Amino acid sequence: MINQVEPNISSEDMESVSRYMQSGSWITEHKLTKDLEDKVATYVDRKYAVAVPNGTIAIYLALIASGIRDGHKVAVPNITMIATINAIIWAGAEPVIVDVDNTLCMSLDSLKKVPEINAVIFVPLNGRVGSGLEIQEYCKDKDIVLIEDSAHALGSSYLNQKCGSLGSLSIFSFTPHKIITMGQGGMVLSDDENLYQKLIDIKTFNREKDKSDVHKGFGLNFKITDLQSSLGLSQLSKLEEFIKMKKNLHRQYSNNLNDKYLKSFNEYETPWFIDFYCISENQREELYLYLKQKNIETRFSYPSLSSQSYLQNIEKTDLTFSEKVSNNILWLPSSTNLSREDVEYVSSAVNNFLEN
Ligand SMILES: Cc1ncc(COP(=O)(O)O)c(C=O)c1O
C-alpha cells in the first residue's frame, strides 16, 4: 500500500531519542524543549516560543492569552481542520465562518463583510499563504487580534516573512503527518513579552516563580516532554531537506499530471499535501475508489466547516465558493518517504483513470 502520508523517521532520529533516554534525565520538559523552542523561534524570526502538547491547545492558549473570551467574535476560514474552530468554541468565543479565495485561504473580501470582530485566525492552508499579508494589514488598521494557525506551514513564507511570524501569535503542530513531527506536539510563537508571560503562566500552573507552590491565579499544565523534543530537534535539523523533498514531489506530480487538476505553489511556499482538483464530487469518489484498488491510499480534503452538522447555528458570510470547492479535492500520496517510482506509479494510475 502506498500511504497518503507517513512520518519520515531516520536512524538519526532514533539515535537522538535513544541518547536522550540514556542520559538519565527526568523525561519531562527541560533543556531540550527550551532548545527546540529557541531554534523554532529563530527559524521563523520570532522572539518567543512556547511548546505545548498539540496544535489544538496551541490555538486555544493563543486565544486565551490574547484576552479572547465569552462574547468575542473570531473569524475563521470555512476550509480548515476542525481544531481551528473548536479551539474558538473551547475558549468560549463565537466563531464567524468566512469564505476562502482560490488559494483556499481566508478571503479578505469576505472578511471585510464581517462587522465587529475581535480576532481573526488566518490559516496558511496546505502551505499556501494567500492574502495573509493583506489580512495582517487589515487587522492592524482595525485593531483586530490576528492569530496565525500555521499547523501545515512550517517552511513556507509570505514572500520574505516566514509562516509562524504573522500577527501577534502563531502556532505550529508536530503530529506525524506534519512537515516535522515529534509524535504529538505544538508551539505558540510571539514577539510580545506580555503575551509570552501569559502563555507560560497558563501553561505551568501560574506559579509565582519556578518550583514555587504559591500561585498567582488559575493555571493548568500544558507542558510537553524532553523525550518528544529529542525527536523534534532531530527532525528540525532536517527541515531544509524535507522542504526540498516536498517541493520536488510537487514538481514530479506536476510534470506527470495535467495542469488543470493541480494547483501551483509560489516558489516561497512549501506544499504540505498534493491537492488534486477533481471536476466533481462524483469524480473524486470514483478516483478515490479506483486508486484504492491499485493499493494507493488517498484522502478527501477537509469538508467545509459549514457542512458539519454541529456547526449549523454558527454565524457565517456567503460561503458559496468554499462549499463547492471543498467537495472536489483529493489529497494524493504526499509523503517525503515516496520514491520516484512510487510517484510514477501513482501518476500513471491517475492518468489511466482520467483516460478511461
Ligand atoms: C490547520 C490545523 N490547525 C490545527 C490543527 C491541530 O493540531 P493538532 O493535531 O496538533 O492538535 C491541525 C491538525 O492537523 C490542522 O491541520
Secondary structure layout:
Layout: H1 11-21, H2 31-44, E1 48-52, H3 55-65, E2 73-77, H4 82-90, E3 94-98, H5 108-112, E4 119-122, H6 132-142, E5 145-149, E6 157-158, E7 161-162, E8 169-173, E9 186-190, H7 193-203, H8 226-236, H9 239-256, E10 274-277, H10 281-293, E11 299-300, E12 315-316, H11 320-325, E13 329-332, H12 340-355
Parallel strand pairs: 2-3, 2-4, 3-12, 4-5, 5-8
Antiparallel strand pairs: 1-9, 6-7, 8-9, 10-13, 11-13
Bound molecules: pyridoxal-5'-phosphate.
Pyridoxal-5'-phosphate binds at residues 54-56, 80-81, 83-84, 123, 149, 151-152, 173, 175, 186.
Give an overview of the whole structure:
It contains twelve helices and 13 strands. The protein has helices at 11-21, 31-44, 55-65, 82-90, 108-112, 132-142, 193-203, 226-236, 239-256, 281-293, 320-325, 340-355, and strands spanning 48-52, 73-77, 94-98, 119-122, 145-149, 157-158, 161-162, 169-173, 186-190, 274-277, 299-300, 315-316, 329-332. The chain is globular and about 70 Å long. It has two domains: 11-236, Aspartate Aminotransferase, domain 2 (3-Layer(aba) Sandwich); 239-355, Aspartate Aminotransferase, domain 1. 38% of the residues lie in helices and 14% in strands. The chain has 356 residues and is α/β, with parallel strands linked by helices. Pyridoxal-5'-phosphate (PLP) is lined by residues 54-56, 80-81, 83-84, 123, 149, 151-152, 173, 175, 186.
